[in-house]
Design a protein that fits this description.
Helix content is 32%, strand content 24%. The longest helix has 14 residues. It is globular. The chain starts with a strand and ends with a helix. Strands 1, 4, 5, 6, 7, 10, 11 and 12 form an eight-stranded mixed β-sheet that branches. The protein has one domain: Spore Coat Polysaccharide Biosynthesis Protein SpsA, Chain A (Alpha-Beta Complex). It has seven helices and twelve strands. Strand 4, helix 2 and strand 5 form a beta-alpha-beta unit.
Length: 217
């Protein structure tokens, strides 16, 4: 069985909205609901957790009722950091493959989800990425220096791992250099296997991102 942990703990400061970005309407439907529907479509038998701030759990339940959503899932109270939220969900996870996804990435493709699961099943991990299109420079004490673009990729979610590998990684203590689950798994000694992501799988963080997501739909 697969387990999906959808993290939705943001409060949307960069979205310039009083409503957290995961609840904003994207073509008439809340962003987070679109994300939930996508993962249910990918695997209707999966165990699904959504991590939410305590203060917004009741609001989410109201949205589920309003949009007549009956997709089975469990709400997990989020922690101070994303690390804490995922860790809370991991304690209840029973899947042999566990995927962690940003709730504000509603346009992940079924192909990407299945490629991540396959990577985790075959190699222990499956992390989606896209090649960098822009020129890249590294900030240095002297100013900046150019980088070889083909040596870098842009990382997305869901990041999928064998349950054993991910739970082992989350035994490490939190620190600020942990930027995603892949970085934590790598720190614990795991090997990260990359798979192809999809261009539409953007993380909705700003009003411009919302406009892009609307155009993709």
């Amino acid at each position: 069985m697969n387990t999906f942990i959808i993290t939705a703990g943001g409060i949307g400061k960069r979205m310039e909205s009083d409503l957290p970005k995961q609840f904003l309407l994207l073509k008439g439907k809340p962003v987070l609901l679109r994300t939930l529907e996508r993962f249910y479509e990918a695997d209707p038998t999966a165990q699904i957790f959504i991590t939410l701030p305590n203060d917004w759990i009741d609001y989410w339940n109201e949205l589920l009722s309003k949009y007549h959503c009956q997709i089975p899932h469990e709400i997990i109270a989020g922690g101070i950091e994303r690390y804490d939220s995922v860790n809370n969900a991991l304690k209840k996870s029973t899947g042999t493959i566990i995927g962690v996804h940003d709730g504000v990435r509603p346009l992940v493709s079924l192909k990407t989800i299945k490629a991540c699961i396959a990577g985790a099943t075959q190699k222990g991990s499956g992390v989606p990425c896209l090649p960098a299109k822009e020129s890249i420079r590294k900030i240095t004490p002297e100013g900046s220096s150019s980088c070889i673009r083909r040596e870098y990729v842009l990382v997305q979610t869901p990041q999928c791992f064998s349950a054993e590998l991910l739970k082992k990684a989350y035994q490490l203590p939190y620190h600020s250099a942990i930027t995603d689950d892949a970085s934590l798994v790598e720190e614990s000694g795991g090997i990260i296997h990359l798979v192809e992501g999809n261009e539409e799988n953007i993380k909705i963080t700003t009003p411009v991102d919302m406009k892009m997501a609307e155009s993709f739909l």
